[in-house]
Amino acid sequence: MNRKFFSLPQEKQQLILNAGFHVFSRNSYRKSPMSEIADAAGISKSLLFHYFNNKKELYLFLWNTCAKITIEEMERSGAYDETDLFGSMESGMDAKLRLMRKYPDIGTFAVRAFYEKDPEVSADVRESMGQYIAVHARRKLQKLDPDDFIPGIDLEMMYREMYWASEGCLWEYIQRGEMNVDAMEDDFGKLIDFWKSVYLRRPQEEVKNERKDI
Amino acid sequence: MNRKFFSLPQEKQQLILNAGFHVFSRNSYRKSPMSEIADAAGISKSLLFHYFNNKKELYLFLWNTCAKITIEEMERSGAYDETDLFGSMESGMDAKLRLMRKYPDIGTFAVRAFYEKDPEVSADVRESMGQYIAVHARRKLQKLDPDDFIPGIDLEMMYREMYWASEGCLWEYIQRGEMNVDAMEDDFGKLIDFWKSVYLRRPQEEVKNERKDI
DNA sequence: CCATCTATTAACCGCTTCGGTCAACACCAT
DNA sequence: ATGGTGTTGACCGAAGCGGTTAATAGATGG
User: Fold this and answer.
1) Which positions in strand C are less than 7 Å from the protein's CB atoms?
2) Domain count, chain B
3) Runs of H (alpha helix) within chain B
């Protein structure tokens, strides 16, 4: 298997992981050549096959590693512990950005692997996805207190809207190719501030508008 | 060149265009085989080469067609003529969705072609992009009247936020693979309604909160 | 200085796939 | 029959694929 891979210095491991994430995130499984991954990692194809017996093994290893470190990072950030919506959103973003700084293509890779249809790997991906989903699902829709927000707002729609906007912002960076995490962090920060300024009930309204709109 | 292609019945032309958009939107130029496109169009590879002399010619033809029909549709929808923000947004969406119903993968194709790096085509893409951009740039940031919106809102941020959210919503559909335009239309409609309900100044505030927050 | 071990690679293998060609077939109107 | 038109399967040389292997270079240790 890949015992030899683990005895590599951490930095070299990360280089290979990122090369894999990069290539597999831009092409389908079948159209992601091992040679291209080796090149991206700056090693020979033979050496890559020395670490991983075959393409499938590398792919599934990347998938499991992706799940593992994402979960770790998420839990470490305490994104699930926060009680306030924007607070948990901020620490969630923080975790995602920290992850992305280390593994720039991990997000795109995860999405692509999720939807991969090639029968050589899709079954295994689907199977080992169980736990990954299980943890992510803990991002339960938070119990939101309607009184915190401007009166009459559709909270579920607000939630979807915010999700889509961050996804769209991310997507823009991905398409551009250059993964400038600092600029992303700045944009996300502005987004959250904007949401706060718009969706949160403004103080002077607290008493005035009470119940008037229901 | 492709004189024979144009004498095809419209419906058959569209089938081939969509096959091209589909394959080229999911793989890079080099990794999009002509055979796959022919299969997707339900014709033989030989026939595809009968219509287009080579792969590059087909690709650039798709790119130019994509630009042409997008511009046409946008102008026909009158998205640029509207004066009201949400109105122009709605008709713009309408055009986009109408286009997407006819050519489901045209949007993804356009983005991918825009960022394509293969030297065999990138130069030509970049070159013929001039006019495409020129027209799209006419989507000038509309003169918005701050009095129409809730007081104190950051209008530019609002605009970016809305753009990202629609992009993110679209992205979700794309990733899922099935391009359900009806469901998309429904989602976009809800989004716009939500924005109206949240960003537009609410009637009872018009007098009450005047200038209090600046 | 030699023997041994480990990390690393170039060269190679058999097979598939690629872009593109070509000769032939089917169909239709002369 | 004749000739034009639309369409295809079979084919070509070249390139790319996943994977193997034999050999190289360098560190270690006696």
Assistant:
1) 7-11, 17-23
2) 1
3) 3-6, 10-26, 34-41, 45-51, 55-77, 85-102, 106-115, 122-136, 155-176, 181-199, 205-208
Output DSSP code: residue A137: T
pLDDT tens-digit series, residues B92-113: 888 888 999 999 999 999 999 9
> Would the Cβ of B55 be found within 7 angstroms of any atom in strand C?
yes
Put simply, whether B53 touches A (Cβ < 8 Å) is no
Tell me the average pLDDT of chain B: 87
Query: What is the domain extent for residue B53?
Result: 3-200
Query: Could you tell me if residue A140 is inside a domain?
Result: yes
DSSP-based three-state secondary structure for A34 = helix
Average pLDDT score, chain A: 87
User: Do the Cβ atoms of A79 and A98 come closer than 8 Å?
Assistant: no
Looking at the domain assignment, is residue A188 inside a domain? yes
What is the Cα–Cα distance from B193 to B179, expressed in whole angstroms?
A: 22
| pTM as predicted | 0.86
Tokens of B84: 């009201």
- Residue B209, chain A, CB below 8 Å: the answer is yes
Express each pLDDT in A128-171 by its tens digit. 887 666 655 555 556 788 899 999 999 999 999 999 999 999 88
Q: Among B150, B171, B191, select the one facing A167 at the smallest CB separation.
A: B171
Residue from B22, B93, B150, B160 to probe the interface with A (highest A Cβ count within 10 Å): B160
* DSSP E strand boundaries for A104-180: none
In this structure, is residue B118 part of a structural domain?
yes
